[in-house]
Specification:
9 strands; 7-stranded parallel sheet; 2 domains; 305 residues
Length: 305
């Protein structure tokens, strides 16, 4: 990297503006000065979205039918947003114990696959999801706009998949939340989604206003993954307790055998077990035939029947 240029084998592949502490401070001041303007724009976009999607938000009008059953089930929505990989890793115990319905929003479906799981639903306009995720067996929900455009529809059909179409203004993140809420999800855990005003403004999209309203619509069903990581603690199963107990007993037994007194104790126990085994075998071999029962003198098929 030299003078604002990135070179690869002496060939310029990218150019940028060299920053220092002073230039970063100036840029931060300018951003803070423009925050009020951005906030006013955000509020205006919020009101516009509320007017256009009043039926969807208030009456759930236009939500399509899907095959995947979400009624009274926990749902985990994964978006490739801030720290989504870390959040998904934290939720491994939750996923293992609660087995939620996994919904990947565009590239979030690939994140689910990378985590070792298989999504049940893939939602989005299909601009950042791989063919591997689209053909993993999940139900595909294509996000279409109110004017009828559905950018990902042709791509999905080209893979031999007939998707469900969900027409709505806003983002695919909103569509996934509204779908889960309408179909009766008991709780919606969100990974990588936008949930603060700073997130919405940093995104720099007017559509972020819809995400804020969608979160208000879903209400107390939605839980951010970072909140789960703070509140959730993995439960210890009975199998884990038994394994821990056996491991402790084995460690004590090995430690005891390493002492002279322990070795004498083990030899005595071994001798007593040998005497007990000899006594039991002598009872069987010395017992009269009538005491041993008729089975040894009959074919196996007869005494089993």
């Amino acid at each position: 990297m030299h003078d604002g240029e990135i070179l690869l084998d002496e060939r310029v592949i990218a150019k940028g503006l060299v920053q220092d502490d002073a230039s970063v401070s100036i840029a931060m001041e300018e951003a803070r000065a423009g925050l009020a303007v951005q906030l006013e724009s955000f509020v205006a976009n919020t009101m516009d979205y509320l007017q256009r999607e009043r039926g969807l938000l208030l009456d759930r009008a236009g939500v399509p039918e899907i095959r995947t059953k979400l009624d009274d089930k926990p749902v985990l929505i994964v978006v490739r947003g801030y720290h989504y990989k870390d959040d998904l890793a934290v939720l491994r115990p939750y996923i293992r114990e609660n087995r939620p319905v996994l919904i990947g929003v565009d590239g979030g479906a690939d994140a689910i696959l990378e985590g070792g799981y298989t999504p049940h639903l893939v939602v989005g306009d299909m601009d950042s999801v791989t063919d591997r995720a689209l053909t993993c067996g999940a139900e595909i929900i294509v996000h279409a706009y109110r004017d009828g455009r559905a950018p990902g529809l042709e791509r999905v059909r080209a893979l031999g998949i007939e998707p469900v179409i969900f027409s709505a203004t806003g983002t695919s993140e909103d569509v996934a939340m509204l779908l889960a809420d309408d179909k009766g999800a008991s709780v919606i855990v969100a990974v990588g989604t936008h949930n603060t005003l700073v997130d919405f403004l940093d995104k720099g999209r007017s559509g972020m206003a819809s995400t804020w309203l969608t979160r208000l619509r879903v209400g107390d069903k939605i839980v951010d993954a970072k909140g789960v990581s703070r509140l959730y603690r993995q439960r210890i199963s009975n199998g884990q307790l038994v394994s821990l107990l056996l491991a402790g007993l084995f460690a004590v037994a090995v430690a005891l055998y390493a002492t002279p007194g322990g070795q004498v104790l083990y030899h005595l126990l071994g001798a007593r077990l040998d005497d007990l085994w000899a006594f039991v075998t002598s009872l069987v071999t010395e017992a009269p035939p009538e005491a041993r029962g008729p089975w040894p003198d009959l074919p196996a098929a007869e005494w089993m029947s």
